[in-house]
Amino acid sequence: MKRNVEFYRVLQSHFQKDLIEAGCDEAGRGCYAGPVFAAAVILPVDFHHPLLNDSKQLSATQRESLRPVIESAAIAWAVAQVDNHEIDRINILKASYKAMHLSIDQLTTSPQLLLIDGNRFIPYRQTPHRCIVKGDGIYASIAAASVLAKTYRDAFMQELHLEFPQYKWDRNKGYGTADHRTAIEKHGLCKYHRHSFNIIKNPPHLLLP
């Protein structure tokens, strides 16, 4: 059987050696419902874990096993969210950057360089940053941030599922899967959906609290 070479690649521990780096990533940007989450992580320069990778390349079990390892080993870490109402107000891209900024705000150690997953970012104060496309599969700190953002968001969507089980958020986590779209067609949108995404035209009704 052919191995996924990308999965077994060892992540780089740092972008440079002179400044304190924080890796930043988000989770849930493309979802129909729920908040967007972001995490910022400062790892020791010698941190290594054989499973650590872009969270999308890991199983839910692997992500959950990595979460306490990252939290324990990190010099500093933080997770933040921006809810669907704010997403509708300022747009999802700005909301993703805001969630990253909020997570950086919470770090107990101030980073001197930010490694951002993706190709764009709104500068955080006077802290320099580097945007790295697919950085969660290249640098350990960004991969760690992707794991924390994803696991915290998944846990949050599991809680929302208990309030609105008809949307199957325990399985789809708010993404536009077939079962989620079918539930929206049947039940309409609820208070956690992102109305600015124009998910359906003329929804049959709106589910309130």
From TrEMBL:
SUPFAM superfamilies: Ribonuclease H-like
Keyword Manganese in annotation: yes
Subcellular location: Cytoplasm
Domain annotation RNase H type-2: ranges: 19-209
Catalyzed reactions: Endonucleolytic cleavage to 5'-phosphomonoester
Gene3D superfamilies: Ribonuclease H-like superfamily/Ribonuclease H
Keywords linked to the UniProt accession: Cytoplasm, Endonuclease, Hydrolase, Manganese, Metal-binding, Nuclease
Manner of cofactor binding, per the entry note: Manganese or magnesium. Binds 1 divalent metal ion per monomer in the absence of substrate. May bind a second metal ion after substrate binding.
Cellular compartments per GO CC: cytoplasm; ribonuclease H2 complex
Residues where a divalent metal cation binds: D25, E26, D117
Database matches in CDD domains: RNase_HII_bacteria_HII_like
Cofactor list: Mn(2+); Mg(2+)
Top-rank taxon, per record: Bacteria
Molecular-function annotations in GO: manganese ion binding; RNA binding; RNA-DNA hybrid ribonuclease activity
Enzyme class: hydrolase
EC number(s) from the headed UniProt entry: 3.1.26.4
One family name in Pfam for this protein: RNase_HII
First-listed, main subcellular location of the protein, grouped into a coarse class: cytoplasm
GO BP, sorted A to Z: DNA replication, removal of RNA primer; mismatch repair
Homology family: Belongs to the RNase HII family.
Entry function: Endonuclease that specifically degrades the RNA of RNA-DNA hybrids.
Name of this protein: Ribonuclease HII
Species of origin: Hydrobacter penzbergensis
Phylogenetic classification of the source organism: Bacteria, Pseudomonadati, Bacteroidota, Chitinophagia, Chitinophagales
Gene name as annotated: rnhB
